[in-house]
Specification:
Length: about 90
């Protein structure tokens, strides 16, 4: 049995709730690399890095990075063409 190297995108809920007023894990994301569209919670989330790294399940491209330092939080969404958030 191999040890899992990633979690699903739901594991980013805590970190992303500090940045967004809505639940981003329920948002629809479109990968800039391969064009796959799906719920952010379905992404592969890697936490054994200096921050969070979410990868597309279709092409394994990086779609989101979140790094928090003592003074700032860096959010890199360049791997997404869009993140569709539902209106409440």
């Amino acid at each position: 049995m191999t040890e899992a190297t990633h979690l699903d995108g739901n594991a980013a809920a805590g970190a992303l709730s500090e940045l967004f007023a809505v639940d981003v894990t329920a948002a629809i994301a479109r990968c800039a690399g391969c064009g796959q569209t799906g719920v952010f919670a379905d992404t592969r989330l890697y936490v054994n890095a200096p921050g969070l790294v979410a990868r597309c399940v279709g092409c394994d491209g990086v779609i989101l990075r979140v790094v928090t330092t003592p003074t700032d939080t860096y959010l890199d969404l360049r791997g997404l063409t869009y993140l569709k958030l539902p209106n409440e």
